[in-house]
Amino acid sequence: MNKLFSLVLWYSAISLTHATLITDIQGTTFLSPLAGQTVSDVTGVVTAKGDEGFYISGTPSSDVRVSNGLFIFTESTSILDKVAVGDMVSVSGVVTEFASTSDPEESDIKGTEIDDPTVVVQSSGHTVAPIVIGTGNRIPPTQALSALDVGPQGWLSVPNNVSQVDKVNPTLVPADYGMDFWSSLEGQLVTVTSPVSVAFPDSFAEFWVVGDWPVTGLNSRGGLSITLGPDGIPDANPEAVIIGDPLDGTTNPVVSLGVTLSDITGVVQYQFGFYYILPLTAPKVLTTPPDTVPPTNITADITDICIVTFGDYNVDNFSPTDPQLPVVANQIVTHLLTPDIIFLQEIQDNDGPTDDGVVSSNVTLSNLISAIASLSGVTYDFVVIDPVNDEDGGETGGNIRQAYLYRSEKINLVPGSPAGTATEAISVSSSSGVPKLSLNPGRIDPSNAAWVDSRKPLAAEWQTNGGATLFTVNLHLESKDGSSSTQGNARPPVNSPVAKRTSQVELVADFVQSILDIDSDANILVAGDCNEYLETATVFASLTDIMFELDVLTDVPPVERYTYVFDQNSEQLDHAFVSTALSNRETAIQHIHVNNWMANINDRASDHDPTVGKIRLC
Ligand SMILES: *[C@@H]1O[C@H](CO)[C@@H](O)[C@H](O)[C@H]1NC(C)=O
Ligand SMILES: *[C@@H]1O[C@H](CO)[C@@H](O)[C@H](O)[C@H]1NC(C)=O
Ligand SMILES: *[C@@H]1O[C@H](CO)[C@@H](O)[C@H](O)[C@H]1NC(C)=O
């Protein structure tokens, strides 16, 4: 008590000599109210030191919005050499809002720091207790990132980038918004107890964790899935935080989904699009969950003329000589259990990424089929339409495209229509009240502007040996490249190119509707990599108006709906939609986490997990 009283007196004395408090610099908003001003006698205890400066902690505020931590930017070795953790220092310099990148796609907000400092060490041997997140009042919110994420889908609302944090500079509401929560701790020393990683590391060995605090969207593996919150607004998983490069030069461990780690103490720093914790030293891995993945329990008798099992798998820039080829073949056999028909995406041409005009993928597909056959005795056939060279996006020269593998002893293309070319548009006509495709297989409206530099959907009509028919569309919608970071300046974050993806879905929905117009009872299955979560509802509206997404239809627990892990989120980019006729019969779907449950990111055969489903045609 006595000690605290004297501390208060001591700080009051400093303020009489025009000292500036760290809390005055940090304020209650994202940007410093003193930005651009020269300040003097900013005092605090050094909590952490790196190559580019050090962090100090001053007298705390009773207002949780106001941080009492601050970064002092300097690369001067003479300053860095004289300053040690535990020193009480007095700093003068310029309050600066610094963006770690000028790349507009990174859409950084700025971090508050003191630049051009002069530093006086006043005394040594002080200690600062870190703020333990998850106790007392410092518990991160679990739903929203920012008050600026307005719209019915919160952070996934369209339009996005309707405002920017640095223009509005909102007053922090740490209890409600994740960015505000982490901003209210900017520059502070914090501890995360019992961290669990919720993703693989990025290429800089940085990784996302949640600590010992309440979370929502937790899946059975320990990751955080994108789900809808209690208010129906998509949950942005703001309770996860990214752990950056350790300040002492140690190297972060190899982590994966569900790995538990030793406690992490570090400083909160905004950089490269996110609020980071920069650990004082690298944590240690305590436990790694087993990477044994059970095979699917979705199977069907190959002689059953009504039930069809299907696989759906984005095999990630798959070329004929790819080391991942035998791994994918083994997954199809041992985990997907050789389904009757497989929707593949990202099949490359016969010489992979060599950009020499080759577009055929028959060697790529034949190599995969041979590898599956030698493991299982099951010999698939394939259906594909070669794209026009370099017209469909993806890795340069790879000419990625969708293809089907199918088991001809069970199911075959309906004969009587020629196979389409890359540029021919498929159409549907009525043959005595039965929908008939002009091309089989064929591509949907390939010259439409929505498909420029993107994969055209591959449509086909099939029949089982018993004569039951099925229309399919194999999709690979435009990727999210160019999107801004979830904790970036643009609010809601830029979802690139959401208008184009929406148009792509609309063209697929138009095609499906043209079949339903002739036969409202038609069996139709649309599946593939949509590069979008169902929670971005506007993108899928045209399709979900007329079809049923299988995870929703079959009540897969929302937290288990994921095929991809990116930043802090386990998310579902790969979807299957069925027509009303199919929805009224037996259906099933399972995502098989053969890739995203690996212990090491390099052990994945693809960045996507495959899916197995089942439908009943008759
Ligand atoms: C968001 O909009 C602002 C204002 O129009 C613009 O300056 C900025 O580049 C946009 N951000 C991104 C990431 O597109
Ligand atoms: C298959 O496994 C899922 C869990 O992944 C379970 O919900 C479902 O009931 C199982 N189905 C069968 C037919 O065993
Ligand atoms: C691929 O197609 C070419 C041209 O039709 C043919 O000569 C070759 O034998 C095919 N290769 C395989 C493995 O099917």
> Which CATH architecture of the largest domain would you pick?
4-Layer Sandwich
What's the β-strand tally? 34
CATH superfamily of the largest domain: Endonuclease/exonuclease/phosphatase
Mean pLDDT: 95
Cα-atom Rg, whole angstroms? 28 Å
Q: In DSSP terms, counting alpha (H) and pi (I) runs of 4 or more, how many helices?
A: 11
Ligand identities: 2-acetamido-2-deoxy-beta-D-glucopyranose
Task: Tally the structural domains.
Answer: 3
Structural class: alpha+beta
Provide the low-confidence segments as ranges. 1-16
Strand content: 25-35%
* CA distance, first residue to last residue: 80 Å
Keywords: Signal
Signal peptide: 1-19
Protein name: DNase I-like protein
InterPro entries: Endo/exonu/phosph_ase_sf (IPR036691)
Task: Characterise this structure.
This protein is an alpha+beta fold and 618 residues long. The protein folds into 3 domains: 3-123, OB fold (Dihydrolipoamide Acetyltransferase, E2P) (Beta Barrel); 129-289, no CATH class; 307-616, Endonuclease/exonuclease/phosphatase (Deoxyribonuclease I, Chain A). It is built from 11 helices and 34 strands. The protein binds 2-acetamido-2-deoxy-beta-D-glucopyranose (NAG) (3 copies). Residues 297, 590 line the site of one 2-acetamido-2-deoxy-beta-D-glucopyranose (NAG).
